[in-house]
Amino acid sequence: MAFWNRVEHQMAELSIKYLDLWKAIGVSSNTGAGWRAKKRLPPADSCLAIARHLDVSVEYLITGSETALLDDSYTYEMPDLDYQERVERDRKRVPRSLPDDLLGALSYCGEVQMKYIRRILKLPSGE
């Protein structure tokens, strides 16, 4: 599967349209459609923006696989937050009217998943 096939697959998973993707990464629809039609790999900064918007790695989009880092010095460890700390940390991301256990579960979601959940639940964007 090529770069654009993986992009399309991930977009389908997240119910994202190309026009929304182009807008989110800051390129015109003509530019994005041109890359796609010519099966060209976008510039590195655009590949990174696409990967971030689709909540995948650039490596996955380009190669189709994820490689574990061999040297742990390049990884960033998230602080070990207990359940209540995660709930408090993420209060800004979801409405206060949600129960704490749902709020805790949502604290593991990335930004793209949160947008998707907000859309499904018909919640305000929260931005």
Main attributes of the structure:
8 helices; 434 Repressor (Amino-terminal Domain); 2 domains; single chain; mainly alpha; 127 residues; 0% strand; 56% helix
Alpha-carbon Rg, integer = 17 Å
Number of domains: 2
Classify the helix fraction into a percent range.
55-70%
Q: What is the CA–CA distance across the termini?
A: 35 Å
Helix-and-strand structural type: mainly alpha
The CATH class of the largest domain turns out to be Mainly Alpha
CATH topology of the largest domain, which one? 434 Repressor (Amino-terminal Domain)
How would you describe the shape?
A: globular
Under the CATH scheme, which architecture of the largest domain would be assigned? Answer: Orthogonal Bundle
Tell me the strand percentage band. Answer: under 5%
Number of strands: 0
**What's the CATH H-level superfamily name of the largest domain?**
lambda repressor-like DNA-binding domains
SSE order, one letter for each helix or strand: HHHHHHHH
Largest sheet: none
Protein model, in words:
The protein has 127 residues and is mainly α. It has two domains: 3-63, 434 Repressor (Amino-terminal Domain) (Orthogonal Bundle), CATH 1.10.260; 77-121, no CATH class. It is built from eight helices and no strands. The chain has helices at 3-14, 18-25, 29-37, 44-54, 58-63, 83-89, 100-106, 111-121. The longest helix has 12 residues, at 3-14. The model has no long low-confidence stretch (mean pLDDT 76).
